[in-house]
Each structure stands twice: as C-alpha cells, then as structure tokens.
Please model this.
Amino acid sequence: MKFRIGIAAISVVLCILLGNPWRIAVLLAAVLIIILAADIIEKRKIKNQIGDLISYITKVQDYSSLPEMKKISEGSIGILQSEIYKVITLLLEQYSSEHNQKKYMSDMMSDISHQFKTPLTAISLMNELLMNESVSDEQRLEYTGKIDAQINKMTWLLKSLLTLSQLEAGVLEMKVEKSELNKLIKDLSEPLLIMAEVAEVEYICSIPDGIVLNVDIHWFKEAISNIIKNCIEHTNPGGFVKISASQNNLHTSIVIEDNGKGIEKEHLPHIFDRFYKAGNSSHDSVGIGLAMARQIIRAHDGKIEAASEIGKGTKFAISLYQNTDRC
Model:
C-alpha cells in the first residue's frame, strides 16, 4: 500500500512538472499499470502465505512434534502466523502432558497387577487347602499365617504405591522442620543395627556434629533407611556399610556406601526406577525402596546419584541444596 501511494504521489509531481497532456496521459497509464501489477503481486503473495499457513496446520495433525515453519516477518499475516504458532505449541504441550499422565496411569496399573498376581495366587491356593477337611489343625494354622503374611505384604505395597504416586505427582506435602543430622541418623539406625547384625555386616556411622537439615523428618528418615537397607541386603557377611556426611555454604552431602556385591553397569541407570530389580536382587525384593528414596530426596530440592563396581561395592551420594544451616 505504501508503495502504491508513493508511486501516485511521484506521478502527480511529474505531471505538474511536465505540463504536456500527451506525456501526462502516458505517465498516468504507466502508473496505473504499475499500481495494478503491484496489487496483483501483493494479493498473490498474501494468497501464498495463507496457503503456507493452511499447509502448516495440516502438517501439524500428522506430526507428534512441531514441523518447521517458514517465517513471515511482516504485516498482518506475520502476526497471524505468530499467534497460530503460539496456540499450536500450547495445544501440543497440553496433549503431551495428558498423554504422559495416561501412560503413567497405564504403567502403574500394569505394575500393580503384576505385583499382586503372585500373592493373590498364593492366597487362593492356600484358601483351597484350608477348605479341605483332611487338613490338620497344625496345617490350618500354618496356612492361615501365610495368608496373613501375604495380606500384610499387599497392604504395605498399596500404601507404598500410594505414597510413591503422590511423590511423583508432587502433591505429598512435606512438613519441613530443623533436625540435627546426627540425631536423625541415630534414630533411624536402631532397627537397621539389628538387620546388620543378623547379616554379619559392620554398621559404621561417621556424622560430624553441627549439621542441621531442613527436612520432613518422617519422610527423610524413610528415604535414608531404604538406601541403607539396600546396602545391607547386598553386602556379604564380613563386609561393611558406612554413612558419612559433610556440609558447606552451598549444600549438605550425605554418602552411604558398602563393599558388597556391586551393581552391573547395565542395571545401574535403572536402580531408581519403580519396580526395577537388578540381577542380584533378593527374592523378596519389590523394587520400590530406591524409587521412593529418590522421589523423597527430590521433594527436598536434592539429588541422589549411585556409583558401583562389581565385587567392590556401591556408593550412594545425596546432595541437598537448601539445607545449609549450622548449629
């Protein structure tokens, strides 16, 4: 439009200067042709741009991610293109979020079904045995005890799965309060010392005084206990499990290590996945303890990493970035 107005203005000025009617007529005709040509070109350009936008929207329906878009940098069509891109980006993000949520629920239901299949089968079998009139009172008592044990296991698993799902969704509220790390480790160590003694594993705790954390005491103890239990379970008699810590102005570091069996390289990246069981996992292991520990630590603005070598042991390193208070 500005181009056409400019041509017309120049034409008027030239007509005044030339003064010849014939020349004026020719000039005006030339100007008219130029304006018409420019208008046709402009309309064709807009038509092509709209065609590109229609083609782009069509492609979006066939792609799982955004296809490339030829940038239109000027005019109303450029503004329209920018707004279309914003809307499509937002819709794809929402779709991706909903898709991930559906996949998470599907995976969770599949995991629950898999975990409950064995105990339910055992309960069903023992219930059939109890219905047999030839079963002695002693056997009935034994089967009843086993059924009770399986029910307790399923109850624990349901509670753990509920907690884990709340942690992963970020909806489990953490009641943060100050706690001295030395006392926290001492409190959670009482049952673990018995476990270590039974396994003939030396339990070493080397926590300096003065380290104070801002944590949910209940859930943080749950996370640390799960990691220590894992280390004890995978350490041979005569080995050790050691807990140490340090703190500076940036973060608090807690290290839990053992000199046990170790974890193979192909399993190491997956040990924090829900229900993942490495090759040397015990028969009773469910594969939920480390997954829960990681989520609890993340909820405290922290991270956990693992390093391991077969036959030499495993080291878990926890870093908490908002826990720098000191006594």
Remarks:
- The chain has three domains: 2-70, 110-169, 177-320.
- The helical segments are 2-18, 21-60, 75-130, 137-169, 181-198, 217-233, 289-299.
